[in-house]
Amino acid sequence: MIAVVVNPAAGNGRARNIASDVMRALQHREDIVEFTTRTRGDEAQQTSLAIERGARCVVVVGGDGSVHHAVRALTSATRRVPLAIVAAGTGNDFVKSLGTPAHDIHAMVQCITRAQTRPIDVGLIDGTPFVNAAGLGFDVAVLERMQQKQTQGRQQWLGGTAAYVVTALGALLGYRGFDASLRTTLASSHDAPGAPAWQERIGHHAHLMTVFANGQCFGGAFRIAPEARLDDGLLDVVDIGALTPWQRPAVFLRAVRGTHLSHAAVRSHFGAAFTLHCEAPPLYEADGELYRASAATVTISVRPAALDIIV
Ligand SMILES: Nc1ncnc2c1ncn2[C@@H]1O[C@H](COP(=O)(O)OP(=O)(O)OP(=O)(O)O)[C@@H](O)[C@H]1O
Prior knowledge:
Keywords: ATP-binding, Kinase, Nucleotide-binding, Transferase
Largest sheet: 11 strands, antiparallel
Number of domains: 2
Oligomer: single chain
Order of helices and strands: EHEHEHEHHEEEHHEEEHEEEEE
Number of strands: 15
Bound molecules: adenosine-5'-triphosphate
InterPro entries: ATP-NAD_kinase_N (IPR017438), Diacylglycerol_kinase_cat_dom (IPR001206), Lipid_Phosphate_FormReg (IPR050187), NAD/diacylglycerol_kinase_sf (IPR016064), YegS/DAGK_C (IPR045540)
Domain DAGKc: 1-129
Protein name: DAGKc domain-containing protein
GO molecular function: ATP binding; kinase activity
């Protein structure tokens, strides 16, 4: 059975029509069951249900948030079930690194029928899996602002990516930054835990934003980690230090094209495990979904080849 997990709210409601087209295109090929989400995060329960009912493949019709919650269920299941993604969200950042025809329903249906898969790494932040990126600092401030605007019913006239960019610009000058120290505890996934690890202390200083990237793009418009690879057993860390408010727009503009890494205030490196020591349990985002960390010290790691993607 092929399970089609649909978030009807994704892409400002666009996902509902895309899902109908996907169901129609798949219906003559195999047993297809639609699992429609009812609330935020319900993709995880719907995916678990699909796996329990014997799904051979889970097709997510939604955006990055939908994929994120489906992956929570896929990576905790007792059986390895591959994931296919039909892009129906707003930013659809993860599929930009994947290279699948995620925007082409008929090409995706052919991929699903062929069932060829590719293993990719899954990141873990404070125990929460992510496939694209996890971040702390400015990106969290922007998501918090966006959620406030949504609950107040403001900015309905703007689509998702434009809304994100407008909100980000509005928050850019006033954001205060956060203090934390970051340590790379494992340079590569081939190192044994506890081995004399290559350690780099980025230092206790004010950060504007720290992103742990598996994929390259985030925020709808930014190529935040242009060197990240989904299958190298590593996460790319991009740490933007304390810039004066007036230096910030230039760096963010460079991030749109992915040319920000050479800026003096941007540090980037890669590794397989990290600890971030903050002053209090921070808010973080994983694939664009907000979480509160369980403690002030947050661990971030990677599980190499932990998820199969239909390609
Ligand atoms: N039935 C539902 N009603 C409201 N929200 C839902 C529902 N089902 C899922 N959600 C939530 O909607 C949020 C947004 O989904 P998603 O990220 O897939 O779409 P998007 O924001 O349009 O796209 P992107 O993240 O790629 O920009 C997620 O937190 C998801 O869990």
